[in-house]
Amino acid sequence: xxxxxxxxKSFGDKKIxxxxxxxxxxxxxxxxxxxxxxxxxxxxxxxxGLIKPDRGQIIYEGVDLVNLGKKDFKKYRKDIQIISQNPSxxxxxxxxxxxxxxxxxxxxxxxxxxxxxxxxxxxxxLDEKVLARYPHQVSGGEIQRLSIIRALLLEPKILIxxxxxxxxxxxxxxxxxxxxxxxxxxxxxxxxxxSHDMEVVEIxxxxxxxxxxxxxx
Amino acid sequence: xxxxxxxxSIIVLIIILLVSIFANIIxxxxxxxxxxxxxxxxxxxxxxxxxxxxxxxMLSRVIYxxxxxxxxxxxxxxxxxxxxxxxxxxSGYFGGRLDKFITSxxxxxxxxxxxxxxIAIAGVLGPGIKNLILALVISSxxxxxxxxxxxxxxxxxxxxxxxxxxxxxSDLSIILFHIIPNIMPNIIILLTTRIGRSLLSIAALxxxxxxxxxPNPDWSVMINDARLYYRSYPYLIVVPGFSIFITxxxxxxxxxxxxxxxxxxxxxII
Lengths: 217, 270
What we know:
Chain A is α/β, with parallel strands linked by helices.
């Protein structure tokens, strides 16, 4: 599905990622664990094309994403999405949540399937009224579910889950991970699950890699 | 309190605008009509706010006087805001060489003392409304650019802007739908304070003979005309001075009120 080879990234003198290599297979949940500041988020930003690595390749559908310009990368953006650990800061505070959720569809010139949105809202046990609210007017759990819905509406092939449940209470965590797992199986999606909760990682993932001292073990 | 003052300022500004627009209907006399027998009359039944040294009715001239000041002040500030904000957004958002280039130009304009710079430009261009607007725009766009750039730099670092990149938004739609709405409350505050400042600059330039020219009725021209007489007839300065004061105060209060309205985060949490 996606192959990362010889990836290096430094900020100033500090080496964050050193010769990172891994392959994510289709329909696989690959977990990357590591301490805070170990470079997990940097790695996800590189895969998303938000920052360029100093060296290395990310091969997706036979194309090296690292060498693509902004315009060429747009073709693949829809396929790789992320759910972050602090979703409220990933929603524009001046925009109602309903508009924020469907905006990416317009960006990729995709039609909004009302039924699909309704089903997702139901599946994630949300009240439709939240769509008419602003980010500061809903709870952390609600906005996290909306951020997952926003990503899923794009039907990505790879979803990076950057500690998606770390800000939620345990009962909601289990509920969301359960839904994510079900969707992953149904759609045969690939997940990169970033976490430092080993218990969750072991239950949730097919394979675990450890990011330590800027190297993947 | 802000709400009450805000609404009050809207009412005052609407009254000032309506009075200016319908000056020809409301004013009791032609603003340039000279009642030579009643010069410097003081407050009388015939001339409610007195007359000036040429016998012109002060009330009529005050009613007409807002037209040019408000028109020039608002227009010049809007044009400055459009140019300055545009430059600030481009500079802050795209960064790099473009940012350096725009920032250098902005710094040059900012380094010049604004009032002296405006007077110099108005002096070179000569008196007249068009030139006055041009002088105000040239001397004030840089202030908008610098502040808007700083706001854009701040908002650009927000995670939701980064999110819009992988959610497929183009630079233009990020700027239009995510940057501008989030810096709007501050731009509005800036706009209203700058309109007030422009009105003061117009008053100063007209006072120096570089703005609106006599015998056109204008608040600042009226103050200029009153220079020789204001010790004996203070109303000659107080009447137009109060008009300028109340207009600027209302615009600034309106700015505070609008900022609260535009700032979604100040809305009630459900």
